[in-house]
Amino acid sequence: MRYRVAMKWIATCILVGGTLSIGCAFASEGDRIAQMSEAYRNGTERDRLLICIDAIDKGLICRGCHVGTMDRIFSTRFSTPDGGAKGYDALYKGVVHFRDEDPRPKETGADATSAASPTKGWYLAFRYTENGSIYDYQLSDLSK
């Protein structure tokens, strides 16, 4: 009888301890995401790129991860998909530009052209499913 009581007590301790450690892991991940989000808002293009790479290294951005995590890090709204962003492959597309704006001066007057200027700087391009699961992603600094 004592053996059964002891085993139940040990199993309960392991279960509660495991639950507590899992809860702590989620809290630390939430704190990490909040820190990344704050650093991203205040960072330069290079800082933002490094934050993105860190999020990829930590498994916060990965194939199969939810796009909502990216929303929290980059302050975006991809988890509420726009029907117009859906491609022919039935996947939604998203881009996070790490540069705030083009540093070149804007042309005005008669010299201004109506042609679109290419996007410069680092960005994260990705595709995701209707349920918010990241299908694929890529980092690039090529002009679009």
Automatic annotation (TrEMBL):
Q: What keywords were assigned to this record?
A: Signal
Signal peptide interval: 1-27
| PROSITE patterns (UniProt xref) | PROKAR_LIPOPROTEIN (PS51257)
Query: Can you say what this protein is called?
Result: Uncharacterized protein
Question: Origin organism of this chain?
Answer: Lysobacter silvisoli
